[in-house]
Specification:
Blueprint: E1 14-25, E2 35-37, E3 40-45, E4 48-49, E5 52-57, E6 60-66, E7 69-70, E8 72-77, E9 91-94, E10 97-99, E11 107-117, E12 121-136, E13 155-161, E14 164-166, E15 169-172, E16 174-178, H1 184-195, H2 207-214, E17 224-228, E18 233-236, E19 242-246, E20 250-252, E21 256-259, E22 267-271, E23 277-282, E24 291-296, E25 300-301, E26 310-316
Parallel strand pairs: 18-26
Antiparallel strand pairs: 1-2, 1-11, 3-8, 4-7, 5-6, 8-13, 9-10, 11-12, 12-13, 12-16, 14-15, 17-19, 19-23, 20-25, 21-24, 22-23, 24-26
């Protein structure tokens, strides 16, 4: 069993900032070309819906019907790329001349927020936010005279969205990638797509394409690769740790160590960084000339594969 602990070192997490915004005007349901959004100051996500409508029967609440959830946001910036103007309802009639009140074009959008903790601060990692099917509503623009306390004009857009299809899930308009939890090489591949390279233009891939980038290779069946001490080993030191190695990363387990009369051995469990090697360190020395039993049960890997429970044993030195 694992006891809950709070506010451990490096676990005091927070999220802050907004940077590296990119807008992708939509063309025939795709987002073929991205444009850097300089001067981005804030993105406020404001989902709506998911409201309960209670139904009553037999003089009791029978059930709740939940309405569809919608993703919305507010984008704030000091400026915006020229390519966003069509999404803001203006069209160019001549070079440098634009008219307003035109049909607003849908767009995609991405930006980063910083992840911090009490050790690495904002260098801990970041989240990459992708938004699809966005439409900007008309917004107020307040122009004021320059005075002794000048301020730059802040533009603001209320954004609504239309979800896009995702295989195996309900349609969505938003997707978030956590840099601290994904393969760095796969994340770099996605960022090359989003931001472009020396030989390829930036574009916004649809959710299914993003999922394909991060898809894990099909794993082998979950197995216990080794255990130290090995099964039926004898003359084991009373100070020994028990080390179990699995072939896949483990999500949960209920492994216990008992003595020959059924008493549970107390100890601490630690995993290696890959999540495949479990070390059990007994709180106190084991007893001499004693048979110990390791019950390897409740083991489930990150692919939701379960391991059939097995029992191993060893005997300590006299």
């Amino acid at each position: 069993m694992t006891k809950l602990l709070w506010d451990q070192t490096a676990e005091r997490l927070y999220e802050t900032g907004v940077k590296q915004g990119v807008v992708y005007p939509q063309v025939s349901g795709a987002y073929p070309l991205g444009h850097a959004w300089n001067g981005l100051t804030a993105v406020t996500e404001s989902p709506s819906g998911a409201e309960a409508s209670p139904l009553y029967a037999d003089d009791i609440k029978y059930l709740n019907l939940i309405s569809a959830e919608e993703y919305g946001s507010t984008i704030e910036a000091y400026t915006y790329p020229d390519e966003f103007a069509d999404c803001d309802g203006s069209s160019e009639v001549a070079a440098g001349v634009r008219i307003g009140q035109q049909p607003r074009k849908p767009f995609g959008f991405c930006y980063k927020t910083a992840l911090g903790n009490d050790v690495d601060y904002t260098d801990f990692g970041y989240k990459l936010h992708l938004v699809y099917g966005a439409m900007a509503a008309p917004s107020e623009k307040a122009f004021a005279t320059v005075n002794d306390s000048p301020e730059a004009i802040t533009f603001s857009w209320e954004v609504t969205t239309t979800p896009v299809a995702v295989t195996g899930f309900k349609p969505t308009a938003s997707l978030v990638i956590d840099s601290t939890k994904v393969d760095p090489a796969k994340l770099a591949t996605l960022e090359d797509i989003l931001y472009g390279t020396a030989v390829a233009n930036p574009y916004l891939p649809l959710p299914d394409a993003v999922a394909t980038i991060f898809a894990e290779a099909a794993p082998g069946a979950l197995a216990l690769s080794s255990i130290v001490p090995d099964d039926d080993d004898v003359d084991i030191a009373i100070t020994a740790n028990i080390v179990l190695t699995f072939n896949n990363k483990i999500a949960s387990e209920a492994i216990i160590v008992t003595d020959d009369i059924g008493g549970i051995v107390a100890g601490a469990k630690t995993w290696d960084i890959a999540g495949k090697i479990l070390t059990f360190n007994p709180t106190a020395n084991l007893t001499n000339s004693t048979l110990y039993i390791v019950t390897v049960g409740g083991v489930v890997d990150i692919y939701n594969q379960s391991l059939t429970a097995v029992v191993k044993n060893f005997t300590t030195i006299a």
